[in-house]
Amino acid sequence: MSEKQKEKIVRSVEVTQDMLDEMKKALRRAKAVTPQSLAESYGIKVSVAKRVLRELEREGVVVYVNGNSKLKIYRGVES
What we know:
Elements: H1 17-27, H2 35-42, H3 46-59, E1 62-67, E2 72-76
Antiparallel strand pairs: 1-2
Helix pairs in contact: 2-3
């Protein structure tokens, strides 16, 4: 591998129940969270993070704040 080539990052496509519980606990107090930041923090794909955030919004853990089709911003309900 040459110096200019980047190392490929492999992200998970599955969210375990333990990981989901940890996310819920952390996101309740989050001032702002995006699918990209969630994916980077927990090592999951951005598409999976988007699905998780939509589900957590339905459950009342996070609230949609602003965004567009490319970027959505959420905040925790306790922030």
